[in-house]
Amino acid sequence: MPSLTLLEIALPTPLRRRFDYLPPEDMSESELQRLSAGVLVRVPFGHQEMTGVLIQTKTHTDQNIEKLRPALAIIDQTPALDSALLELILWAADYYQCPEGEALSTALPVLLRQGEAAEERRETCWQLTTEGKGLPAGALKRSPKQALLLEALQAHNKLSRSDIAALEIPATIIKTLTDKGIIEKTFADETTPKTPASIFRQAPLTLSDEQQIAFDQISFGQFQVSLLDGATGSGKTEVYLQAIAKVLEHGQQALVLVPEIGLTPQTIARFQKRFAVEVAALHSGLNDRERLDAWLHARSGKARILIGTRSAIFTPMPALGIIIIDEEHDGSFKQQDGFRYSARDLAVVRANRLQIPLILGSATASLETLNNAQQGRYQHLHLHARAGNAKPAEIQLLDIRGQTLTEGFALDTKIAIGNEIAAGNQVLVFLNRRGYAPTLECHDCGWLANCPHCDVRMTVHQTPRHLHCHHCGHQRPVPHKCPSCKSSRLQPLGQGTERSEIALRDWFPNTPIIRVDRDSTRNKNAMDKILNEVHQGEPCILIGTQMLAKGHHFADVTLVVIIDADAGLFSTDFRGPERMGQLLLQVAGRAGRAEKSGRVILQSHHTDHPLVQTLFFKGYQAFADLILQERQITQLPPFRYLALLRAETKRPEIALEFLKLARHEAESIFPSSPQLNYLGPLPAMIERRGDRFRFQLQFNSAQRKPLHLLLTQLVEKLDANALSKRVRWAVDVDPSEMG
DNA sequence: AGCACGCCGACT
DNA sequence: GTCGGCGTGCTC
């Protein structure tokens, strides 16, 4: 008698264990033998049904065999995840102390999780119905667009959605003709992908000497991490493109990760213009079906290049030959909830396992990466020259201590903006705070508009006029009278982009003022419209948040104004100064990119602060070295390894009690020592958020290994404790935000 | 996490 | 009389 085969499955629950199932009832023994890890399985779970990932088949279970239920179905015989990727995800779940099932489900496209078959969709097309075919040429004359579509279909038999769009026929016409019974939906013919004669659509550029030297240092076919260090416009992208060309020539695939706001149609177009191979993109603008399609194309090898944001690091690519991470210092590579992984760090692991090169590009590399380069673990490649012979911008630190500011602008700043506009140039004003003003204050009693659910002030917004909490989303009307003293003298306090926009409009009534922040670009295509307008090159003033600093090129901007260079200098988060430096340099880099030379004005109350001085007069490397020295003294990353145990509850005592227990347990596993020590429980930076009180316990270790060991044992202990069920808690390994 | 079951307050 | 509040218990 053959021994019973059981399925060990990881399910998307926070429960840190796997579940055993009997095979589906209709499954034959031979089919069962062929099952491999990574296959998706539909199973009953409690009163629900869910999709899990098969980890292995086995013959023994520690459960009562009577309790096992049969799985419902194997979704697809071919594994959704190949074994290398499955192992990477399981490794990451362990490293980040995240339940396996949760990690696996973050890594899988939503549709697969919902039980959809992992099949490529055939493109929908439209064709003429029998009735439609009976229509004479030149019919439907009264509607030119309808006639055009009819004519096109008479000529081409089948047209896809994009074919029709290319004829400038709106989607409503498709619906009208479908309703009239003239056309009908069908599928595209199965096309065999044609192998392009050349991988190039456009010949590669000739590399500069510096680019060539950098490129020559990249070794293919083996594990190697390169920090490609060069300012915006120094030609990093050309090095990426040629490195990609190299792996494509070997029949391999390339994975490119970019920051969340960096994945614009222009970015994708840049790769498509160069290469004649299929380029797939994974970004937040896609719907679930489009995501699955891009994912499937990468997995089948049809797509040779995949460009994506953070989660694209988990895409199966059977012939991956290189990983490139652009703007590697960007915070969006670390997920901030659920499975708190760092795509950049996992890229190092993935590249190492596959023995392929990884390129980390940045002009303002993270201190972790810089330190790795200094220690010789990564090679450090430099690109100094700015493309097109552009001169570096001239930096002016404007000391605003004691100066009268109108709407946040010093008089000199205002004059400089006016001069630049008069000379026919464009100006960029950077203020990293959206809304009209950070809060509302009562001039008579000092009342401040606090959020009823969080320990933060509510931001005043002007259009539409309301108070908005940027932490929980709570909104309310702006009061006419002070709720505390009934005074009507309520005034907005501080400066936001909306307010600066209004002030600039008032001062420069004949110049277009273009605001760029999350509010002004909320609508689809809003950003494209803005970019088009700016690229016309007419004089204008751009005012916006960090959205302006990342990714977009404004060739005609000759003056960059930074309203408040001090934000971040004294932040509670130890990474504040590092982030400030990266952001300021990025903004400053927007000036003078073309023939025109640029100028940057930084308004600051701390022009003589050593970090500010170093950053602007000695450069980023010196600035980074200064911070690194500090980090070494204060025992912080990258010299030490951190983890946080975060806990939140509606009643503060419970979260606090939970963390006290956690600390006690931690002490009993590893007594606190200089090698591995504990801090807390402490209240989070914003103690109450969305009506929940938040606390955290900090772990600081000289090495990764003991910290990981401690966390694993601690989580197990906590999981077994009843208190843990009454608390929303999570471990954050290598946290990027300490709040 | 979901989702059930289970025992106490204000309303169609 | 019910609808529904969230406490707690379970999921192979």
Structure at a glance:
The chain is α/β, with parallel strands linked by helices and 739 residues long. It has 5 domains: 6-113, PriA, 3(prime) DNA-binding domain (GIY-YIG endonuclease, 3-Layer(aba) Sandwich), CATH 3.40.1440.60; 124-187; 209-383, P-loop containing nucleotide triphosphate hydrolases (Rossmann fold); 394-437 and 494-631, Rossmann fold (3-Layer(aba) Sandwich), CATH 3.40.50; 641-733, Alpha-Beta Plaits (2-Layer Sandwich). It has a 7-stranded parallel sheet with strand order 11-12-10-13-14-9-15, sandwiched between helices. The protein has a 6-stranded parallel sheet with strand order 16-28-27-19-26-25, sandwiched between helices.
Principal-axes geometry comes out as globular
CATH topology of the largest domain: Rossmann fold
The largest sheet is:
7 strands, parallel
Strand order of the largest sheet: 11-12-10-13-14-9-15
How many domains? The number is 5
SS elements, strand count: 32
Label the structural class.
Answer: alpha/beta
The CATH architecture name of the largest domain reads 3-Layer(aba) Sandwich
CATH superfamily of the largest domain: P-loop containing nucleotide triphosphate hydrolases
Q: Residue-averaged pLDDT, rounded?
A: 89
Give the assembly state of these chains. single chain
Helical residue percent?
25-40%
Q: Keywords, please?
A:
739 residues; alpha/beta; GIY-YIG endonuclease; Rossmann fold; 5 domains; 7-stranded parallel β-sheet; 6-stranded parallel β-sheet; 22 helices; 32 strands; globular; DNA-binding
